[in-house]
What does this fold into?
Amino acid sequence: MKTRITELLGIQYPIFQGGMAWVAEANLAAAVSNAGGLGIIAGGSAPGEVIRGEIRKCREMTDKPFGVNIMLMSPNAEDLARIVVEEGVKVVTTGAGNPGKYMEQWKAAGIVVVPVVPSVALAKRMERAGADAVIAEGMESGGHIGQITTMCLVPQVVDAVKIPVIAAGGIADGRGLAAAMMMGAEGVQCGTVFLASPECQIHPNYKEMVLGAKDTDSAITGGICVGGAPCRQVKNRYTRKVIEAERAGKPFAEIEELTIGSLRRAVQEGDKENGSFMCGQIGGMVNEIRPCAEIIRSMFDGAEKLLKNRYSEICE
Ligand code: TUI
It folds into this structure.
């Protein structure tokens, strides 16, 4: 499958692995890149030097392109913005904010910049600021989300900008990929499906939570409290406690106290009760552990068959 994204990045398949904080480290990123997609190391909230180490490790594990995601709400964003330049990273994706102030230094370094956008307005702003492409991420996604679904967001962003659009949120097989391409996307970004890979280094309990989740098993925290960031994860004691506190109108600081360390408790400790197991709504369809190469191959094989045959199947 050849699109402006495969051409721009020199990759075989137009699929990005989402920059999942605490999750997406060198092993996962290298596996996705070696399989022909674009692996991404998540900056998350880790110290800059830790991410520098992951970048160097990833380079040892693959000679293919890979990227780094910078979470703009994180205090490490400034450091990471500099480190990606120093380390000669080829692709930067951003999330949870507007990367405008870093754009000039990244473009001067020849970095391909691909911000995640939750709305048409931000997509347009990013195009004007010099972004090479945008990732239109629907609220089906795990983690920090916007308000619009992938089905509604992707075609509206495609119509609003000239740069390539990558669809994210709710995509985990050939059907999702084919649908995204039909909406005008030139690539996809997937997170949840890669959680269920042997190369993903999360606690085994996290994988169990994803494999066990049904379609309706995610909950959004931060959806009510003022100043909060809406965040989707698998329903458990943690989500019940946070949502209860929000509904009771508890002070922001008290709610924040509950959320601090919750992603680490999921990823590293596998604390099924008190962890935040970020996972998209498509988790209901992710039911087995498969290597990244197999995930990618089956998605593209499936999409290719659909895109070739579906018309004649339904339009006789
Ligand atoms: O960033 C994500 N997903 C994430 S970040 C994360 S770590 C975290 N943990 C707890 C609470 C919050 C975050 C977990 N998952 N996805 C990309 C994304 N970006 N989703 C939404 C946005 C976004 C939101 C607002 C992008 C830009 C934006 O701009 C606002 C503005 O105008 O500045």
User: Anything to note?
Assistant: The chain is about 45% helix and 15% strand.
